[in-house]
Structure formats: structure tokens, C-alpha cells
Design brief:
By secondary structure, the protein is mainly β. Helix content is about 10%, strand content about 30%. The strands form three sheets. Strands 1-2-3-6-4-5 form a six-stranded mixed sheet, with helices on one face. A three-stranded antiparallel sheet has the order 9-10-11. A hairpin with a 2-residue loop joins strand 10 and strand 11 (about 210-220).
Length: about 220
């Protein structure tokens, strides 16, 4: 009905315009066979009018989406589109907020890869040892990408090239580095349809040259 054929696996040789779905828990990667522009366009329009899409990233520019570069996934093997599922601040049976749509039904405690929910993106890292300050809460944006450069600093190893992450100097002792200042912005993408409007947002922080995705979500609002 949506005007395209999408599968999670192909038993025969895929045809041009077929779509391979690669579920990743809180997101889905879409590979359009042959990179057919018209099929990709119909796919994006379908997602934008759905009740489950949160944020959509595309390899080629498309109205109402963000480019793959915004998520740092724009390499030669990247999918034609990536969709993070929609989320909300409802609570689960344990009273913990941060419910998501997903590509499977899985009970609490079984885990998944994240959406762009702020509850997923703002999770917990605990560091202890003689190189870290005691009892400090780091209020600056941080991420998994910062672990390697921080560990290398502790080990006294200079990386052979510039790394994507940064040294978490604000949480360490005797590093001789001034505390960095974060910059935060929110970007938006919209698309109007005859039946309503798609709107998605993405909050991005920067500390030095390191980029962090804080949260993102979207929704289709029908016309009244």
C-alpha cells in the first residue's frame, strides 16, 4: 500500500527498488536496492506520516529530514535512510520514564539499542580512581566516544591521530586543562502534506570539536 517492498531478508536476488530493513532496536536502517530515488522518496513520505517515526536521517537531501552527517554516519556504506523510533516520557511498570516504540516486543530488563530519547542518551557513567575527582557530578555533555581518549590520557599514551572524542578533563585531577564550555543548539525539519505536517527536532551539543546528540523526536500532526 505504501508503494514499495520492504523485507528483513531476501531469499532470492533482490530487485531494484526493493528495501532491506535492518532493525537496530530503537532505530531502523533502510537500504534501497539500486538507491532508487523515487522509492526512497515514497519511503520517507510513508515514515513521515506514520505514528511511530521519531527522527529521520537521509543520505540524499529530503524535505523534512536531517542529513546522515548530523548523526556522524555518512560514510560510503551508510544506508539510504535511518529512522529513530518515537519516544515519550511515560513510565513503565517500575515507574521509570522513557517509553519507546520499537521494531519488536521485548519485556523490561531485556535491553535494546537506544532511540534518540533523552532518557536513552543521558545515561550513566561512573568513574573512580586516583585520576578522577571524588564526589563530582560532571554536568558537561559526555559520551562513549570520550572513553578512549580519556583512558589513553590516564595511561600516558598519545594517540597517533586526532580522535572523535575528548579527554574528560573536567572530571579529572592534575590535568592542567581549563574546563571547556559547551554550546547547544536545536535544529528542526518540517514537511507539509495535504493531510497535515511532519516536524522533527534534534538537540545537539558541542564541546570543543566533539559533537553530542542530546535528544531528538518527531511527529505527524493531522489537519483539523
Amino acid at each position: 500500500d505504501a508503494g514499495f517492498a520492504a523485507k528483513t531478508e531476501f531469499h532470492d536476488e533482490p530487485k531494484p527498488g526493493d528495501i532491506m530493513l535492518a532493525g537496530n532496536g530503537g532505530s531502523v536502517l533502510f537500504y534501497v536496492i539500486g538507491h532508487d530515488v523515487s522509492v526512497t522518496r515514497r519511503l520517507i513520505e510513508f515514515l513521515q506520516q506514520s505514528d511511530f517515526a521519531g527522527v529521520i536521517f537521509t543520505k540524499e537531501p529530503a524535505q523534512g529530514t536531517f542529513g546522515l552527517a548530523e548523526a556522524k554516519i555518512d560514510d560510503e556504506h551508510a544506508p539510504d535512510a535511518v529512522m529513530a523510533f518515537r519516544w515519550n516520557d511515560s513510565k513503565n511498570q517500575f515507574g521509570i520514564p522513557g517509553m519507546i516504540d520499537a521494531d519488536w516486543q521485548r519485556g523490561a530488563g531485556k535491553g535494546t539499542h537506544a532511540t534518540l530519547s533523552r532518557f536513552d542518551m543521558h545515561n550513566t557513567l561512573i568513574a573512580a580512581g586516583p585520576d578522577f575527582q571524588r564526589g563530582q557530578v560532571d554536568e558537561l555533555p559526555t559520551g562513549n566516544v570520550d572513553l578512549a581518549p580519556t583512558i589513553l590520557r590516564i595511561l600516558g599514551i598519545t594517540p597517533p591521530h586526532q580522535m572523535d572524542g575528548r579527554i574528560l578533563s573536567e572530571a579529572m585531577v592534575n590535568v592542567g586543562m581549563s574546563e571547556p564550555k559547551p554550546e547547544t543548539k536545536t535544529v528542526e525539519a518540517v514537511r507539509d502534506f495535504s493531510s497535515g505536517r511532519w516536524q522533527q527536532t534534534l538537540k545537539i551539543s558541542r564541546v570543543g570539536s566533539t559533537i553530542y546528540l542530546d535528544e531528538g523526536n518527531g511527529a505527524f500532526v493531522t489537519k483539523r
